[in-house]
Design brief:
Helices cover 58% and strands 0% of the residues. The N and C termini lie close together (11 Å). The protein contains three helices and no strands. It is mainly alpha-helical. α1 packs antiparallel against α2 and α2 packs across α3.
Length: 64
């Protein structure tokens, strides 16, 4: 299951993913969903830079 271990970097991850989605032409609602998925991956590791994930993993998280 999904477990939060550290929220460091979650806001920055959300903001970056939201902007990336805007630049792709997604709706604001889709931008929010994409950014939430990215931020949810971020909080599963300790620290802001320890966890790395691919776009495919963010897209997979969107399906949960």
């Amino acid at each position: 299951g999904i477990q939060c271990v550290d929220t460091t970097g979650a806001g920055d991850t959300f903001a970056g993913a939201f902007i990336a989605a805007i630049l792709e032409g997604r709706t604001f609602a889709d931008c929010g969903r994409f950014a939430n998925a990215a931020a949810s991956l971020c909080v599963e590791t300790v620290g802001a830079t320890e966890g790395t994930w691919t776009r495919a993993e963010v897209e997979q998280r969107l399906k949960i």
